[in-house]
Amino acid sequence: MRQLFLKAAAIAFGGALLATTPAIAKDYDLQSVFGLQVPSIGPSPVKWAERVALMTNNEIKIKVHGAGEFVPPFEVFGAVSNGSIPMGFDWVGYWANKIPVANLVGSMPFGPDPDLFLGWMFQGGGLEIIQKAYDPHHVKIIPCHLVVPEAGGWFNKEIKTVDDIKGLNMRIAGLGAKAMAKLGANVQLVPAGEIFVSLERGRIEAAEFSAPQLDLGLGLQKIAKYYYFPGWHQPASWDTIIVNMDVWNKFSPKQQQIMVEACQANITYNMYDQMNAQIAAIEQIEKAGVKVQRFPEPVLAALHKASTEVMEEEAQKDALFNQAYQSLTAYIKRVGRWNQLQALPRN
Questions:
Q1: Domain that holds residue 44
Q2: Do strands 139-147 and 169-171 pair parallel, antiparallel, or not at all (unpaired)?
Q3: Shared domain check, 71 and 202
């Protein structure tokens, strides 16, 4: 009896010892499609990794690498999909060739503002739709950075009419690129780190990248003459953490929840950080001699028409794109009414 008691006590003591032993930390690599020095967007996955380490008591440590450290920027998705890299950080629309709906989720031309896009993503069914598209690629997606309305782009010639777009060589991404192509532009996708050189050497005559805070960091104010608004092609856009599904499934439900909630904290931080920084960036751009102005209304009307045609064409090609397009359009109409009712008159 005494031996049985001692054995039970030993088992209990061993269990208590295990319970108080800190979990072994595991390290993971993450490669971003952006350089880590790019304002706001560059440090974003680093801040997320810090939050995950804090919230897991350092059980999960993620080392963030900048663009090109393991694979070229536009190969990050494939590397995460096949397990070469456990995690990545991206702009969703970069993977539109593999996942058509990623173009719409990345940004919808003339679409929702950041508040509406955020609501749709987490409460309106958006995340469920995009995850269905990522499942065949063995990738988990976590929305992690919501970019405020972007600029319409940098131009070395003034855009007075729609005819000025014809033949224009422009770096532009996503569905906006397809709309510009409809109006006669020659569009191409250039990685962020190559935009300056491409514009400087005349390979392109115009380029869009992001919001003023981020654009300023690329130094395009040194070589462009005009900076146009609004960012019709990306009134809000999503950057995400992507995780190889085998890696994701090894995390406990609690750890998975922490990683999602760390991204939601990231979104909140980046929203107020970006909002605070844009006008200061615009003022610096103007001081550099760049003319900041809006596209003429007829040009915006033509871009709106072309964008709608593009989205309707894409919806006919892909079932998940169509599902997201119908869902997001309905959400903007129904939930966006709140913003319309609350709109205040401005002097």
A1: 2-148+237-277
A2: unpaired
A3: no
